[in-house]
Specification:
Shape: globular
Distance between the termini: 53 Å
Strand content: 25-35%
Structural class: alpha+beta
Radius of gyration: 23 Å
Number of strands: 17
Length: 347
C-alpha cells in the first residue's frame, strides 16, 4: 500500500468528465442528388437556445479543397426560434444570409418549406408564401457549378454564440420532426411531381442514409441512433451521448395531423433498402463500462492510501477509470478527424 499521487487522481477525474458531457446529434439525407425542381418538406423545427435545426440542399464534395461550394439553407437558430436562409456558394465559399421576421410558430407547429430551383432563380417558400428570391449572380453560380444536382439534408446540432445561440446540454433531449418530403422536376417551364417519401416504415427508407460525422461547430457527432421513424414521421434527436434515441418524442402531438399539401407522384426514391451510413458505421455506444468500486473479495485500502500493485482479489478503480476515460478520448479524437473531412457548412 502507498498513497495515491494527487496528480494521478486529478488526471483520472479530468479525463472522465468530458466523456460524460458529450452530445450526439442527427442528420438524414438522400443518397441521390436532384437538379432543377421544387423540393418540399413538412417540418417542425426543434426549439432551444443554441439548437440549430435545418433543411438544406448540398452539392456533395463541396467541402473539398479547390471545389466550388453549393448549398441552400433553411435554418432555425436562437432561443426565439428565428429563421435564416442562405445560398452558400463560391471558391472559397461565402454565406449570403438573411434573417426573416415571420409571424409563424416555427418550433411549435409544422410548416411546409420549399425550394424552387430553376436556371434563372432560387426561391424559398413557407406554406406557399415566397420569403426570398435570388436571381442574377446567385442563380448563375448554381446553374454553372451544381449541374449534377444537390442532395436533400435535414440535421439537428448544437451551435455556439457565433451561430445558433448559447447551447447548454441541460435542455436535452430536443427533436426535429419530418412529416413528408417530395420532389417535382422542372422541365419545359413547369414543375412535375416525381417522388414523395412519407416515412411510413420503421427504418431508414430506400434512397436515404444517416450521417456519422461531426457537426459544423464540432460540439457533437451525428449518430444513426438519433434518427428514428415513428408513426409516419422521421424524428431527428439531439441528445446526451449516453441517452441516444427518441425518448420524449411526440410526433403526433406536434402541430396536428399529417398534411398532404402539394402534389404527390406516389413514387419513392431509388436506392438500397436500409441504406447504411455514409463513411461506415458510427461508434454510437459508450466508450466502455465504468468500473465498479471493487469486488466482494477486495481488501479495502487504509484511509488516504491506494493500492497500485493490488493484492489477490483487489481491483484498481483508478486504473479502470483511466482506461475508460482514455477510450472515450480516442473516440473523440476519431470524431474530430472525421469532422475535418465531412463538415457540411463553413460557419
Amino acid at each position: 500500500m502507498r498513497k495515491c499521487p494527487k496528480a494521478l487522481v486529478f488526471l483520472a477525474v479530468s479525463l472522465v468528465a468530458p466523456v460524460a458531457a458529450a452530445t450526439s446529434s442527427a442528420e438524414l439525407y438522400t443518397t441521390a442528388a436532384y437538379g432543377y425542381g421544387r423540393v418540399e418538406a413538412r417540418v417542425r423545427f426543434a426549439a432551444g437556445d443554441g439548437v440549430v435545426s435545418s433543411f438544406f440542399l448540398w452539392k456533395s464534395g463541396s467541402e473539398q479543397a479547390g471545389t466550388f461550394w453549393n448549398e441552400l439553407d433553411f435554418e432555425k437558430v436562437g432561443a426565439d426560434c428565428r429563421l435564416e436562409t442562405n445560398p452558400i456558394y463560391g471558391n472559397p465559399s461565402a454565406n449570403h444570409s438573411q434573417r426573416h421576421a415571420l409571424d409563424l410558430a416555427l418550433c411549435d407547429a409544422f410548416h411546409t418549406y420549399a425550394y424552387e430551383w430553376t436556371p434563372d432563380a432560387v426561391v424559398w417558400r413557407i406554406d406557399g408564401m415566397e420569403i426570398r428570391r435570388e436571381t442574377g449572380a446567385t442563380a448563375q453560380a448554381f446553374a454553372d457549378n451544381a449541374s449534377g444536382g444537390m442532395q436533400l439534408h435535414f440535421n439537428l446540432w448544437p451551435g455556439d454564440a457565433s451561430f445558433g445561440g448559447n447551447f447548454t446540454p441541460a435542455i436535452l433531449p430536443v427533436h426535429e420532426y419530418l412529416d413528408w418530403v417530395q420532389f417535382s422536376k422542372y422541365e419545359g417551364g413547369t414543375f412535375t411531381a416525381d417522388w414523395r417519401e412519407d416515412f411510413d416504415g420503421t427504418s431508414v427508407p430506400a434512397g436515404w442514409a444517416t450521417g456519422n460525422w461531426a457537426s459544423p461547430k464540432n460540439k457533437s457527432t451525428h449518430s444513426a441512433q438519433n434518427v428514428s421513424f415513428i408513426d409516419g414521421f422521421a424524428v431527428l434527436s439531439l441528445t446526451a451521448d449516453d441517452a441516444l434515441g427518441p425518448a420524449g418524442a411526440m410526433p403526433q402531438d406536434t402541430g396536428g395531423a399529417s398534411s398532404s399539401a402539394g402534389t404527390s407522384a406516389g413514387g419513392s426514391l431509388s436506392g438500397t433498402s436500409g441504406a447504411v451510413n455514409a463513411g461506415g458505421t458510427p461508434a454510437t455506444g459508450s466508450a466502455g463500462t465504468p468500473p465498479t468500486a471493487g469486488s466482494a473479495s477486495a481488501t479495502a485500502p487504509s484511509a488516504g492510501s491506494c493500492n497500485f500493485g493490488p493484492a489477490p482479489g483487489e481491483t484498481s478503480m483508478l486504473t479502470g477509470l483511466a482506461a475508460w476515460a482514455f477510450a472515450g478520448l480516442l473516440r473523440g479524437s476519431a470524431r474530430r478527424r472525421t469532422a475535418a473531412t465531412r463538415r457540411r457548412s463553413q460557419r
